[in-house]
Amino acid sequence: MASNKSLLILPGDGIGPEAMTEVRRVVDWMEHNRAVKFDLDEDLVGGASIDKHGIPITDEVVEKAQNVDAVLLGAVGGPKWDNLDFSVKPERGLLRLRKDLELYANLRPAICFDALVDASSLKPELVSGLDIMIVRELTGGVYFGEPRGIEDLGNGVRRGVNTQVYTTPEIHRVARVAFELAKKRDGRLVSCVKANVMESGVLWREEVTIIGETEFPEVELSHMYADNAAMQLVRAPKQFDVIVTDNLFGDILSDCAAMLTGSLGMLPSASLGDVDEHGRRKAMYEPVHGSAPDIAGQNLANPIATILSYAMALRYSFDMPEEADLIETAVQNVLAGGMRTADIMAEGMAKVATTTMGDAILRELDKIGN
Ligand code: IPM
Ligand code: MG
Asked: What is the pLDDT of residues 72-115, one digit of tens each?
């Protein structure tokens, strides 16, 4: 049994740990039934790290993350840490991981599972069969631009500053990831920024166009203002195949796209960096949903997004596409069988706990994977 697949698990806060417990059962299943061995390590991030170390992530954990094949993260944040100084809030732990590992390409698929068509707030015909991939730039833009801060101008006046900034290499590398994905999918890419208002948006549009024309002529590229894209996502979402967008617009558009599918509790994401000299691509996988403190610790959370994040890790970091497919099929079958966690509950379905959903997915894996 080869043991060269290293995975760092960071359950984090809120529903993160409960969801991750179900994932570990799926990892165990893979080990027992697929003769793969993962070197698992687990550590703290977010509020859990603040409680123990006073900071949202330690250097030691960042270093661990730098040296594994993939990081699997649960969720960070909660009311307990809301009043902390901005620089030590739980979210800073997540942002530091993204930045230090240079995970510049954030892949957020929005797929509507057949069984959940009715859980969407849009009409079934608008979302059935929906399959969009949003590629969000993750290490630049207004999230990290300098100067930033809050300054006192005197006389009781304060000024808050953030800077939207992109360089050509930052635009090129994320555009390439998006074009590559479009090439493997339906061959259509829409780039969404505010090129009508922002210089950084003008540059973005020009540079994405150049990459398209010179390297990916087979992909059909179009441009859309980000506000229009938000509108189009709820008007006619199936017009999109792959969307590439900056950090802030990507944050917003991906939440919007996620909800089309019925629940944030369903959606995984992958954050990828460059391939290093050993052929290894730094990567972190996490659900799109947050820590949901209101339902944490009650066995109510939907573990599916985190389980599907592990499936994405199998696909993108461990070259195990069949196993990734297997997990995705198991999830679909369980949903088709009528089980629902509270967030996706619908009339006539069976409302189940986090652990029961985990049990059902494992049973399904036993059934279809052996
Ligand atoms: C996300 C989240 C994060 C972000 C927060 C938790 C910092 O909303 O991953 O979309 O804004 O990027
Ligand atoms: Mg967000």
From this structure: 999 999 999 999 998 899 999 999 999 999 999 999 999 998 88
Domains of the chain: 1-110+265-370 (3.40.718.10), 131-260 (3.40.718.10)
pLDDT at 234 over 80: yes
What is the reported pTM? 0.92
Is 227 marked active-site?
Answer: yes
Structure tokens at 293: 């403190």
Contact partners, residue 1, CB within 8 Å, separation at least 6: 35, 36, 37
Nearest to 186 by CA among 233, 132, 231, 246: 132
143 is catalytic: yes
Task: Kindly name the residue from 194, 246, 316, 343 that is annotated as catalytic.
Answer: 194
252 C-alpha to center of ligand 2: Å? 6
Q: What CA–CA distance (Å, rounded) separates 12 from 6? A: 19
